[in-house]
Design a protein that fits this description.
mainly alpha; 5% strand; two-stranded parallel ribbon; 39% helix; 80 residues
């Protein structure tokens, strides 16, 4: 049930990014990579980010271990 409050004014949501004018690399954790893979648009999303993308070795190792445990195959992760 939606209750309107007279104290709070409605605002339109706007797109914001904390990456604007910041050249620092973006470090991805395991949950981010899993979600990017699951949404099927991960490659396009990452390609749209101007920053370098970093995947720590521990994250790549977690994904390799989990994937091989589930289906007997290994995931190839590129660390940049």
């Amino acid at each position: 049930m939606l209750i309107e409050s007279s104290l709070r004014k409605e605002r339109r949501m706007s797109c914001s990014s904390s990456l604007i004018n910041i050249a620092n690399p973006l470090v991805l954790d395991t949950s981010v990579l899993i979600n990017l893979h699951a949404c099927k648009y991960g490659e396009r999303i990452l390609a749209a980010i101007p920053n370098d993308i970093l995947v720590p070795e521990i994250v790549a190792g977690e994904l390799e271990h989990e994937t091989s445990r589930r289906n007997g195959s290994m995931v190839s992760c590129t660390v940049s």
